[in-house]
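From the shared-data thread, chain only:
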Amino acid sequence: MLDVSNYFCTNQRCKDYGIKGKGNLNVHFRYGKHNRRMLYCTMCRIRFSETKGTAFFGSKYSAETFGKIIQATAESSILL
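Structure, as tokens:
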């Protein structure tokens, strides 16, 4: 099983909303070109993407490419 302890339910009505490591999340399936995980909360029965609420959500870039973009942006702002 994949580690989902760094995630929490994003449904504000869920009893476990915002609490990491409760054991209520499972990987429901994978989707998309970059094989992202669809998570499932066993408490409220809501499915959501592992990238929901992040800069990755809806992005067509891989995590590796996105990391390079952020790193290049950070390095160029130091030079200013």
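The chain has a mean pLDDT of 84.
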